[in-house]
Amino acid sequence: MSSPKPSSALRSPQLWIGTGLIVAVVSTLFALLYVGGNVNPKGHLRDLPVALVNSDKGGQAGGKRLNLGDQVVSGIEKSAEGNHSFDWQVLSKQEADKRLGQGKLFGALVVPPDFTASVTGLSAPQQKQPARPKLTVLTNQSAGSIGSSMASQATQKAAHGASAQLGKQLLGQANSQGVKLAPAAQLMLADPVTVEVADGHPLGNHSAMGLSAFYYALVLVVCGMLGANAVNSQVDTALGYLHADFGPIRRRKPLQHTSRVRTLAVGTVLMLGLSVVMGSLVEFATVGILGMDADHLGLLWLYSVAAIAAVGVSALALLAAFGVPGMLLSAIVFVAMAVPSSGATVPLQALPDFFRTLGEFEPLRQLTGGMRSILYYDAQADAGLTRAWVSMGIALAVGLLFGFAVTRIYDRKGLHRIPRPAESAEPAEAVPAPASA
Prior knowledge:
Blueprint: H1 13-36, H2 41-44, E1 48-54, E2 59-61, E3 64-66, H3 68-79, E4 86-91, H4 93-100, E5 107-111, H5 115-122, E6 134-139, H6 145-176, H7 183-190, E7 194-199, H8 212-238, E8 244-246, E9 249-251, H9 260-289, H10 297-322, H11 324-336, H12 353-358, H13 363-376, H14 385-412
Parallel strand pairs: 1-4, 1-5, 6-7
Antiparallel strand pairs: 2-3, 5-6, 8-9
C-alpha cells in the first residue's frame, strides 16, 4: 500500500498563530521604540545644557561704569524663567571651552570683551563709522547634530532678542538727547548687534558631522550580536546538534552529548577569540579603507575588541538561557531599545522619560559615549570613556554569571538538549541455541 500523503504545513493553525505572534511582537515593538523615542523631540526637550559666557570688560557711558554683557546674560536668564527646555549655564570662556571639548555642552552664547565699548560707540558723535558689536553663537556637533541645532536656534533667538532690547535703549537715548537720526542709522540702532555662528569644537571632514562615533558603536553592537548568533550556530553544528546546509548538500557531524555549561563555555571562548578578529577588521575597514578621522588607534582597537566581546558574550548568555527566543530578546535589547535611547541623533534631553531611563544602562548609549571620547575628545576619561569601560565590565560579568548560572541549573535538573542514552542497558534474555541434528 502507498503511504498516506502528508498534509500541507500551511494548514497547521500552530504555524500561523506562532509565527504571527512573533512577527506581531517584533513589528509593534520596533515601531513603538524606534519612532516613539524620536517623534517629538521639541515636545520632550528638557534641560539641554547651553552656556552663557560674558567676557565683556565693560566701559564708561555718561560718567557711569557700565557692563552691557551682564545685562545680556541677566536678560536671557530672566526670559528663560519658567522654561525648562534649556539649562542656561553662566560660565567663564575657559570652562565653556572645556565642557564643549567634553561633549557636556550643546552650544554657547559668547559676549566678547569689547561688547560694551562697541555698543556705546554706536551713538558716539565722534565716530562716523563705528564697528557693530557682535555676539557669537558656538555650536557643538560632536555632542549630537540635532542637539547642537536646537541649542543654536535657542542661542541665536536669545542673541537677537538681546540686540532688540539694546536697540530700544539706544533709540530712547538718542531721542532723549534730541539727536536726529537718518533712516539708515535708525535701522542700525534698532538692531545693533551682529550675531555670528561658529563651531565651538571643530571636527574633521571624515567624522560624519559628529555621527561617526554613533555609527562605529552601532557596528560594534551589531558585530557582537550577530557574531554570537553565528558562534552559537557553529558550536551546535560542531557538536552534532544541528546540520549544516551548503546549497543542496547537507552535512551533520556525529552527536556529542555535552552539558549546557560546557557548550556555553566553548561558545564563550570562541566568541572572545573572534572578537579580536572582528574588532581588528572593523577598525581596518573604517579607518584604513574609509579614512574615518581617528586618533588613539591602539585604544580604539582595544575598545572595539572589548565592546564586541561584551555584547557577544551577553547575547550568548541569552541564547543559552532562552534558546530561540533569546535571539529575539537580543535584537530587542541591543537594537530596538538601544538605538533610540543612545542619545546619538536625538539627545537624551529631548527624549521621553522612558528612553532617558533606558539610556542609563543600555549598552549602545555607553559605547557611543566612550567612542565620542576616543574620536572627538582626545580620549578624556571624564568625557564618557570611564563610564563606557565600567559599563562593558559590568555587562561582561553579568552575562557570564547569568549564562553559566542558568545552564548549570538546567544541567543539574537533567534538562539536556537531547536525552542522553541510558547509562546501562538491561541484559537481553539468553536464547538457547537449537540442538544440533
